[in-house]
Amino acid sequence: MAGKWQLKDHEAEQRLFSRRLAVAGVLVILLFSALIFKLVNLQISQIDYFSARSDGNRLHSQYVSPARGLIFDRNGELLADNQPIFNLNVVREQVEDMDTTLKFLSTLISLTDEDIEQFDTRLRRNRVPFSSVPLRYVLTEEERSRIAVNSHKLSGIIIEPEFVRHYPLAELTAHSVGYVSEINREELDSLSEAERENYGGTNHIGKTGIERTYEDLLHGNVGYEIAEKNNRGQVMRTLNRTDPIAGKNITLHLDSQLQIAAERALGDFRGAIVAIEPSTGGILAMVSKPGFDPNLFVTGISSKDYSVLVTDEINTPLFDRTTNPYPPGSTVKPFLGLGGLQTGLVDYDFTIEDPGYFRLPGVSYRWGDYTLRTAARGGHGHTDLQKAIFQSCDTFFYDLGNRMGIDTMHEFMSLFGFGQNFALDIAYARTGVLPSRDWKRASRGEPWYPGDTINSSIGQGFMWATPLQLATAVAIIANEGKAVQPRMLKEVEGEPFQPIIENPVPDIVLNDPDYWRYMEEAMTMVVHRPFNNDQFRDYGTAYEAIAQADRDMPYKMAGKSGSAQVVGISQDISQNTDIILSDLNKDHGLFISFAPAENPHIEPQIAVAVFVENGEHGSSVAGPIAKQIIDAYLLDILQIDFAALEGAEGSPLVSQIDE
Description:
By secondary structure, the protein is α+β, with helices and mostly antiparallel strands. The chain has two domains: about 60-250, Penicillin-binding protein 2a (Domain 2) (Alpha-Beta Complex); about 255-290 and about 325-659, DD-peptidase/beta-lactamase superfamily (Beta-lactamase). It is about 35% helix and about 20% strand. The protein has 25 helices and 21 strands. The strands form six sheets. Strands 2, 3, 4, 5, 10, 17 and 18 form a seven-stranded mixed sheet that branches. Strands 12-11-21-20-19 form a five-stranded antiparallel sheet. Strands 1-8-9 form a three-stranded antiparallel sheet. A hairpin with a 5-residue loop joins strand 2 and strand 3. The radius of gyration is 37 Å and the shape is elongated.
């Protein structure tokens, strides 16, 4: 019985346990094998992949923006430099909740809706992961301190220094030097892939003026670096770096002291001044007034400030008056007079008897002589070409223009740059209008009438020219036909800049070289021909305002005044003292000049065009402004001693003065 009811079979249990232990052992071995295989796979087979991913959490490739090239005037004075600021930047990938972070930041510093809108635009434009994007420019020291104290709550928010553009002369060079501002999507899209890559670390691009024209020189080439960052996006160390190449420094022909003098000379007037060095074509001064502060645009102008600029319809500070056209008025008469000499329609002995008006044969309408004080006394009387210049006799040029015809007038005037842009590096300058039959047919769908020619002969009607064109044209007279195209750029990195001129402007060769002397003499009489007691009508139109006002002028100045009608007002109304014209309806005053004139010892050093908006009189308003500028350049800047030159012998001293 004892064997039948045995309770345990130890041998069977031992066999079962052994089998289970073996199975468990196999499973453990398999699991450990799998673990070892996985570790081998991770640590050896995929080491490159996971090392790269690990580094990606702390190592970041980023652009290094180049320093923008500096802009100097001809004397080494800075016109555009780079100054440091501190910006609040965001690394988007390291910010968990952007809305919450921005809301918290707004409690620490001033963040406007406009700041956030511009930041969103930059985020959409950003193409590089883990790169910082500016949220707000120019943090104050107090704002930087607040951010630093709360940095533990601001993952991905960093303060970074940056060099940004600064314009020391502010509004004085706003239109000529221009400004940089944030690059926009349209500008990026217009760039090639290589160019877009070069702007990877740059937020700014030249928008206007020289900054835009020479953007390729000034911008430089972007660099790259591998940086190790912490979890807040702050750079801990730089592991590898390809340095950027800074933009090139450039020097302009512009003279900052003359620029300041020109702006002061305009006083409270709106207007424009362009001064050119005839021998080189270098633009010495280029002022449009009123201007604006270009520094406002560099880090993004506020809507309020921008609205002030664009809604000022009277002063229009954003409008560049130096490169936009106006009726040139009587300033065209020297050029038309040279055309008359060249075509043989007038000579030194040719005269007319001016009754104070002009009539076309068979036409009852009278074109009045707008030199009203002479017209009221019956015109200028016996008038040759020189008198027609220094007394600005409209009737003489009505007659000359009518006999010359618009075709010949258009062809000859174009030689001086009218209707074209001769400037080598001011591509944005407008060409104005040098009317012709074809132009009127194309633009207005009308034929050319004889009356159109009459109006054009005194710079009215359809004829429009920019102050830059007028300065260019009078510089050609100063050069006796040598056409040196205007240019702003003088040197690049200290080396003289010689532009590649695809279509050089030919010199003007007249039938008789003495025509240049004759016209210079006539233009000098505009300023220096004094009163004649018996011939009150024979003095120069600018004599009272310039030569008589400064009897000790050490040099002679050639000039020509002009007035351009803003609205059509009859002579009877304009002479009525009971009627007060609005300042905005007054004529524009213009004056072109060069100096020194008629000097055997020195060639002309400066040619100037002055435009005074609603200045009313070219001779009495624009003329003295031109003289102030010429005084500043010849006497203060070049410091020419004309008294000493009078005793000089030999050839002109141009080279000595240039040196």
